[in-house]
Amino acid sequence: MKKQLVYMMICCLTILTSAMTCDWDDDWEANSDTQAGKKAYDYVKESLNKHTDVLALVYYFNKYVRQETTEGRDSIDRLYFEHVKIVKEKDIYSGKQRYVMRNFPMDGQTAEYLICIDADEAQQSLTQAGTQWNVTATVNEKRSSRNTLADTLLCNYQITATADNQWTVKASGTPKCMFYFREADKALSSEELGNYAESFISIDNDFSIDIDEQLSSDKSLSWTTFNIKGTGDMESVAEPKMRMHYQTEKPLSMFYVDHNYTVQPHPAFFGLVMWKEVNYHFLTFWNEGCINITVEDSLEGTSDEVKAWMSNQQVNVEYMGETNTWKYW
Fold first, then answer.
1. Dihedral angle of Cα 26, 30, 34, 36, to the nearest 10 degrees
2. Which of 259, 260, 255 is nearest to 312 (CA)?
3. 178-212 tens-digit pLDDT
4. Three-state SS for 89?
5. Which candidate, 253, 280, 269, 289, places its Cα nearest to that of 221?
6. Quick one: CA dihedral 151, 152, 155, 161, positive or negative?
């Protein structure tokens, strides 16, 4: 089973050029017993990090629209949106007013996010229990070593406030290629599937989010931690199908650091991480937590279990009875 899983992950799907590919090089050979488990974790993290990026931007947008004065909105804009543009426009399809957020990463590597929120829904902030926003987002990665089409996702979110700074979220993400081929009722050929070997359909994601804002004792530094519990499923576009189910055992703790370093969280979250020296391609960074992943073998009809628990310096992966530590650098 282990050899089959490795085959599916590494041969049938091309090696993932993930956010931290270069960071694992020194560990790869030494931790051969858990390579396949670590790869499953990479795929799940790659998918979820896009969702957490979008949700972080929605959170700060929620703070933005809550401001009743131009000065208040300008202050939020300066703090969190130095490289994000927010406009209010009419949807050409529905004719309704909506807010559109778009980030403009400066490094050419970080994903571009285009996030749309109905203006009428945004009139009621996500701080009041029962308030619901339906959010759509397009996530387009810009990494030159990846297939741009394969990494363009169309995502939908139903976000419901359960209390101040507490949300429940239903999320999905579909690669753009699947969306257009389904609309045309056309099946992808084997060759076309190969072009999207690293793409996953992200379905049935259910999150509960507890957001914690803190201010340093001297009030010179503020940061926001997102504590996320959830479950979800992923399925590869390419054949043979790789199906994965994930579930958090300990909430994932993450925080927002835009890739241009205009937002700096508390140094305690960094450990030894120096952001300007680390090749990290997301707006949210996972600081700690534990996640369980079940990987289904569509060829043999069996499954393997992976457990990964992380800190801001390393990830420990348990797979097939073996446990290895994978360092970020």
1. 60
2. 255
3. 665 555 455 666 555 555 666 788 888 999 999 98
4. strand
5. 269
6. positive
